[in-house]
Specification:
By secondary structure, this protein is an alpha/beta fold. The protein is about 35% helix and about 15% strand. The protein has helices at about 15-20, 25-30, 60-70, 80-95, 110-115, 135-140, 165-175, 225-235, 245-255, 255-280, 300-310, 335-350, and strands at about 75-80, 100-105, 120-125, 145-150, 175-180, 205-210, 220-225, 285, 295-300, 315-320, 330. α10 packs parallel to α12 (about 335-350). Bound molecules: pyridoxal-5'-phosphate.
C-alpha cells in the first residue's frame, strides 16, 4: 500500500499552485435560505428554466453520485465528458516541455492527443502480447519528470481489464499519479478501483456517462480521487463546465438507475450472443476476450473487410494501424436488430 513518498504538492505545477481561481457570481453568493433577487450575473431575467447559470459545483448531482459510488462529495470532479477531465489533469500536473506522461498502447487515442496539445512528452510502453501492462518496463521508463501514468481498464480498443496485481504494483511503484480510465467499467466482471481510493493517495479514476449510462450526447465525465487532488482540478476547471441541461438529465438518469442496470445486462447478453456468432465466421481469426461494450477481432484483411461493411451500410472501427492490432476491427455491441444485421453482413462478405 502506498502511503509514503507521495506528496501531491510536488506534482502540482507552480502556476497552478499560485493561481487565484476565477470566482463566479454564484460562487460568491451564499444562500441565506430566503427568496433572493438575482442581479449579480448579467443574466436575462425572463424565465426559460435555463436563463440562469448552472450550479458551478453541481451539488445535487454530486450528492446522488456520492451516494451511489460510496465516496465523499469532495472526492468528485465533474467535467464536459471525461475528455475534459483528462485535459485538466495535464494542465494541473504536467509542465509543458518539461514533464512527461506514460501511456500503454494500444490504448485510447486522446491521451496522446492531449499530451501533444499540452506540449508534454508521451513515453509509450507497449502492452504485452496478452494486452497487459509491462510493469517492469513501465517502472524502468518512469523518471522524476513522469507525472501521470494512464491505465485504461477495460482497455480501448482491446477490451480486456488489467490484472489486479499488476495495477497494484504500478500504484505502489510509480511516483506520480496513476489515472485509471474506467470508461467501460460497468460492462466488466472486475470491480471498479473506486473502492481503493483510501488506500492509494496517487489513484485517480475517471468514468463517463457516455457508455453504460447511454448519455454520450450530454457530455458528462466523472473523476474520483482524494479530496486534495480534486481540489486542485476544481481550482482550474472552467466555472460552468457542466451545463444545466446536462445536470438535469444526469440526475434523472441516476434516479432511474435500475433502467441503466437493465441496459447493461442486455448489452452484456448481446455481447455473448455476438461472440458466438462471430465464432462461426471463417475469416475471423481471433476474438479477443472483452469486458467492454465492444469486441476486438482479428480478420484476414481488416481494411478490405471494413470497406465491405461500409458498402453494406455498417460502420465499425478499423484498428489495423494500432500497435499489436494488425488486421483488427473493433465492433460496438448494438441492439439485437443491429447485431443481427452486422452478423448477416459479416457472413455475406465471407
Ligand atoms: C477509454 C475512453 N476514455 C474516455 C472516453 C471519452 O469519454 P467521454 O465521452 O466521457 O469524453 C472514451 C470514448 O470513447 C474512451 O474510450
Amino acid at each position: 500500500m502506498q502511503t509514503v513518498n507521495f506528496d501531491i504538492d510536488t506534482l502540482i505545477r507552480e502556476n497552478v499552485k499560485v493561481l487565484q481561481p476565477y470566482s463566479s457570481a454564484r460562487d460568491e453568493y451564499i444562500s441565506t435560505g430566503s427568496p433572493m433577487t438575482f442581479l449579480d450575473a448579467n443574466e436575462n431575467p425572463f424565465e426559460t428554466q435555463i436563463n440562469r447559470y448552472p450550479d458551478p459545483h453541481q451539488n445535487e448531482l454530486k450528492e446522488l453520485l456520492a451516494k451511489q459510488k460510496g465516496v465523499d462529495k469532495a472526492q468528485i470532479l465533474l467535467g464536459n465528458g471525461s475528455d475534459e477531465i483528462l485535459d485538466l489533469l495535464f494542465r494541473a500536473f504536467c509542465e509543458p516541455k518539461e514533464d512527461n506522461i506514460i501511456t500503454l498502447p494500444p490504448t485510447y487515442g486522446m491521451y496522446n492527443v492531449l499530451a501533444t496539445i499540452n506540449a508534454v512528452e508521451n513515453k509509450k510502453v507497449l502492452l504485452t502480447r496478452s494486452f497487459q501492462p509491462d510493469v517492469a518496463q513501465i517502472l524502468e521508463t518512469a523518471d522524476n519528470k513522469s507525472k501521470i501514468l494512464f491505465l485504461c481498464s477495460p482497455n480501448n480498443p482491446t477490451g480486456n481489464s488489467f490484472k489486479k496485481e499488476q495495477v497494484i504494483q504500478l500504484l505502489e511503484g510509480f511516483n506520480g499519479l496513476v489515472v485509471i480510465d474506467e470508461a467501460y467499467i460497468d460492462f466488466a466482471a472486475q470491480e471498479s478501483w473506486i473502492t481503493q481510493l483510501e488506500n492509494y493517495p496517487n489513484l485517480v479514476i475517471t468514468q463517463t456517462f457516455s457508455k453504460a449510462y447511454g448519455m454520450a450526447g450530454i457530455r458528462l465525465g466523472c473523476c474520483y480521487a482524494s479530496a486534495q487532488i480534486i481540489a486542485v482540478l476544481q481550482k482550474i476547471k472552467p466555472p460552468y463546465n457542466v451545463n444545466e441541461l446536462t445536470q438535469i438529465k444526469a440526475k434523472q438518469r441516476l434516479e432511474a438507475i435500475d433502467s441503466v442496470k437493465r441496459e447493461i445486462k442486455n448489452i452484456i447478453e448481446e455481447r455473448t450472443v455476438l461472440t458466438k456468432a462471430l465464432e462461426t465466421i471463417p475469416y475471423i481469426k481471433t476474438i479477443y476476450p472483452t469486458e467492454a461494450n465492444f469486441i476486438l477481432i482479428e480478420v484476414d484483411n481488416a481494411t478490405q473487410r471494413y470497406q465491405e461493411l461500409i458498402a453494406k451500410g455498417i460502420v465499425i472501427r478499423n484498428r489495423t494501424n494500432q500497435p499489436l492490432c494488425k488486421n483488427t476491427l473493433r465492433l460496438t455491441i448494438g441492439t439485437t436488430t443491429e447485431n443481427t444485421k452486422l452478423i448477416k453482413a459479416l457472413k455475406a462478405i465471407a
